[in-house]
Amino acid sequence: SLEVGGAERHVVDLAAALCRKGHEVEVACSVAGGLAQRLEEAGVPLRPLTERLVKRRVSPAYARGVGRLLREKRFDLVHAHIYASAVAAAIATRKTGPRLVITEHTEASWQTWWTRRVSRWAHGRAAHTIAVSTPIRRRLIGKDRVPPERVSLIPNAVIPADDDPPDLSGTLPDGWLEGPLVGVVARLQPEKGVATFLKAAARVSKASPEARFLVVGDGPLREELLGLAGRLGMEDRVRFLGYRTDARALIGLLDVLVVPSLTEGSPLIVLEAMAAGVPVVASAVGGIPDQARHGEEGLLVPPGDPEALAGAMGELLRDPS
């Protein structure tokens, strides 16, 4: 889809960059979403192909939609991102059609033996595969049996954010921006580890009562996480801002950005914080150690460990320089 997410933003930025270089690009997806406007602004045609979201599954309807698109126009390359789209593109190009390239954005820890088998077939159909992190490249070669010479490691990158300040009028209580501000920017789903962040924040607030905490993003765990914040006694110290179109600008207001993920690919948020000069505390999972070395570009901690996370957050708050 074009709902807000790291891989989806990667696709939008890549399509816009290719257009600027003079290539003709179209973006196809199962359904559109919040990032569609950015494609429109970049002049990139968008083709939603199904009536409902296709995620982590094989969809014959999605594959037929890709096939129709390939028959309508002559494309030189199909570049697929994420499991459902990779499989649909592999099906659509299996007999004739342009060459297929797949970019893998995650280690796909959710996969079963069957989806792993389907993924292996899709990668076997591809002319080349791009991995966005070292662990993903190892997975492709070791589990998906992609020959090493057909896998390239290309780390994610970000386009610098605009300098426009975020509009927080009426959003935060008076004085919230005067003390230390620690934040998470993530979709509220289990693998993002926001519950771990809230537990760590409760520990930090005891030693640094002036610290305040932001959660930027929305998702299925919102109500559950609001309840957890209440049980931790953090109602007055945590604000859930929901989905924000200016999330990248909000990062610049933070004293510390936390990435408490339990699993990850190569998250753009780490790069955006670094580009904004904001210190990062992150879980040492997926491609994050490729992006930030412990004690150099950030502080890394084990995933799912509130005590370790609180220790790293507190270390930065105690030593602003």
Order of helices and strands: HEHEHEHEHEHEEHEHEHEHEHEH
Please report the number of helical segments: 12
Low-confidence stretches: none
Lateral strand order in the biggest sheet: 9-8-7-10-11-12
Mean pLDDT: 92
Beta content: 15-25%
Shape: globular
Q: CA-to-CA gap between the ends?
A: 41 Å
The oligomeric state is single chain
**In this structure, how is the largest beta sheet organized?**
6 strands, parallel
Helix content: 25-40%
The structure class reads alpha/beta
CA-based gyration radius: 21 Å
Number of strands: 12
Q: Can you describe this structure?
A:
This protein is α/β, with parallel strands linked by helices and 321 residues long. It is built from twelve helices and twelve strands. It has helices spanning 6-20, 36-42, 60-72, 83-92, 113-125, 134-142, 194-207, 222-231, 247-251, 268-275, 288-291, 306-318, and strands at residues 27-29, 46-48, 77-81, 99-104, 128-131, 151-153, 181-185, 212-216, 238-242, 256-259, 280-283, 299-301. Strands 9-8-7-10-11-12 form a six-stranded parallel sheet, with helices on both faces. It has a four-stranded parallel sheet with strand order 3-4-5-6, sandwiched between helices. A two-stranded parallel sheet has the order 1-2. Strand 3 (77-81), helix 4 (83-92) and strand 4 form a beta-alpha-beta unit. Helix 1 (6-20) packs parallel to helix 2, helix 3 (60-72) packs across helix 4 (83-92) and helix 7 (194-207) crosses helix 12. The longest helix has 15 residues, at 6-20.
